[in-house]
Specification:
Number of domains: 1
Structural class: alpha/beta
CATH class: Alpha Beta
Order of helices and strands: HHHHEHEHEHEHEHEE
Distance between the termini: 35 Å
Strand order of the largest sheet: 3-2-1-4-5-7-6
Strand content: 15-25%
Length: 226
């Protein structure tokens, strides 16, 4: 049986979005948004202001990263997935395709910027996966407080400085054997603010075993063991 990922609606939607992402001049886009990628991260602005300034920038997993997400979600038979950082919904579609093929329940995702959330919703509908996706608009530190009792996989792909707070919110709902997937861990920004997260997720005393693999800008996988 072909996977949902290969269906015309999903493949066409993902190809459109990934092609648009590839055409971006990210350095110019970030500069126009007033964010210096060579400086300290987070920039001297709130998460809401940062989201507003970057609302037209597609920030997502790579094609290979998306395929990895699909494979991991299928491999652990995940039925309930939580995502931090929707953007235009590329990674969400990979997750939702896998959840559908697992006969699962839902992908809960969250986006701070309303225009991006609206476009993501349109993309979910175009791919025929909207019925599986619960998109919550607002600050993830609030929108992800109400979750199902058991979560099988968590994707952390939002602002670097918010990843540890989000992990601490969702972590208690992760079942033993659940996966945490962290994208863009090799980026040359946010090293200071990211160090606390890296130290936390890499310490088995906190209930995780982790490894980093060389996919795109670095993907860290963490297994919930406690």
């Amino acid at each position: 049986m072909p996977s949902t990922l290969e269906s015309d609606a999903v493949a066409t939607t993902l190809n459109r979005l990934l092609t648009a992402e590839d055409k971006q001049d990210l350095a110019a886009e970030w500069a126009a948004a007033g964010v210096d990628l060579g400086g300290e991260f987070p920039a001297d602005m709130s998460a809401a202001e940062m989201a507003e300034r970057t609302k037209d920038i597609i920030m997502s997993v790579s094609r290979k990263g998306g395929e990895l997400l699909y494979l991991l979600t299928r491999a652990i038979k995940a039925r309930t997935v939580v995502e931090f950082g929707t953007s235009f919904g590329i990674s969400t579609l990979y997750l939702a395709a896998a959840v559908r093929d697992n006969g699962g329940d839902q992908v809960i995702t969250t986006e701070l910027q309303k225009d991006k959330a609206h476009k993501a919703t349109e993309n979910f509908a175009a791919a025929g996966l909207g019925d599986l996706i619960d998109l919550r608009l607002g600050d993830a530190r609030e929108t992800l407080r109400e979750l199902p009792e058991q979560v099988d996989l968590l994707l952390l792909d939002g602002w670097l400085d918010l990843r540890l707070p989000i992990l601490r919110i969702v972590g208690p709902r992760l079942r033993p054997g659940a996966l945490v997937v962290i994208d863009d861990v090799d980026l040359d920004i946010g090293r200071g603010v990211y160090a606390e997260f890296r130290d936390y997720i890499s310490d088995p005393a906190n209930g995780y075993l982790s490894v980093t693999i060389p996919v795109h800008q670095g993907v860290q996988l963490a297994l919930k063991i406690g």
